[in-house]
Amino acid sequence: MSFTLDERYRVEGVEQIDSPALLVFPEIVKTNITRAVELCRTPEGSCLRPHIKTVKCREIAELAIAQGVTRFKCSTVSEGEVLAEAGATEVLLAYQLTRVKAERWGKLRALYPATRFVSIVDNIASAQVLTEVLGDAGAEVYVDLNVGMNRTGVAPAAAAGLFAELNALPKLTVRGLHAYDGHLHQPDKRERRELAAQIYRDVDALRQQLETRHGTSYELVMGGSPTFPYYAGKPNTTVGPGTFYLWDAGYTRDFPELPFEPAALLLMRIVSVVDATTICFDLGSKAVSPDSPLPRVVIPTLAEYTVTGQHEEHLNVRVPDTSRHAVGEVHYGIPVHVCPTVNLYAELLPVTDGRVEKPWAVAARDRKITV
Length: 371
Fold this sequence. Notes:
Elements: E1 21-24, H1 26-39, E2 41-42, E3 45-46, H2 58-66, E4 71-74, H3 77-86, E5 90-96, H4 99-111, E6 116-121, H5 124-134, E7 139-145, H6 156-167, E8 172-179, H7 189-214, E9 219-222, H8 228-231, E10 237-239, H9 249-254, E11 264-273, E12 278-281, E13 297-298, E14 306-310, E15 315-318, E16 330-335, H10 338-342, E17 347-352, E18 355-356, E19 360-361
Parallel strand pairs: 1-17, 4-5, 5-6, 6-7, 7-8, 8-9, 9-10
Antiparallel strand pairs: 1-11, 2-3, 11-12, 11-16, 12-15, 13-16, 14-15, 17-18, 17-19
Helix pairs in contact: 2-3, 4-5, 6-7
């Protein structure tokens, strides 16, 4: 992969910034949000329900709200709190609640009465816990379907039985179906589109069956960043991408047809010239997500290089001639997987017109904020 850092990525005063650091570029973030909003326009408004798991940050949620986004997804109670504080009108916690988390969820609802809080279930026992904890306040849920991710979710064939059990519970309202297709990351966009289309046909057929049986309308919550455009505009369907805010090198490589650009850079420095062809950066596995195989970062400020190894605090890179480089030299990297990379930093450094502004706290990096 090759990237060119144009004028939008200019950073002034870099000598004052310790490394490693995670820089974000708000103007590019805004553009990415605009493009996601455009892809999700419907006659009724917008079907975009973006996930906050990538950025975990109130300021970026506010940038989305400024463009008319009102409904969001999250994975943790802390992320839900960040969204409520930012002014989201509805927050879907796409994670099944244990009793302790349900108690925290209830406290969060009391703190932010202007925000509608919803969650997911894939079994009756979890739903019973939710109704017991939330009591008279009631609970709203989506039924989580396993459409091939094989992580959580009830099998579609068993969903009708679960719906019947859920509808018998007092003070619980089933809003619809949640279907996350994170296993669809085929680089061939035609194959990915066809697989997504089959998932939609199956889930929509199930919805129609349930609507006929229960005499009510159900919403679908579908997709992630690689597939959300395929579901956008479908009847009574919202879509939940998350990576699009910041994008990354991995998604740029795998999904070039999607109109997003990297909006986050890792600032790093050479800390050692090891030998005639090896340099070492201060970008270890504690500074960029280690869940991908090497290379985990693309370095656009190096014309020719190979990542040869990574340790907790160090990144070794082979270059043609280390005499061209010096200890302390600043370089920039684009993470291959930005979502867990953000989680490694307590703050993001926003850069506008080259100027580093007041840091943005990655507040939902903490498992607990207030409740």
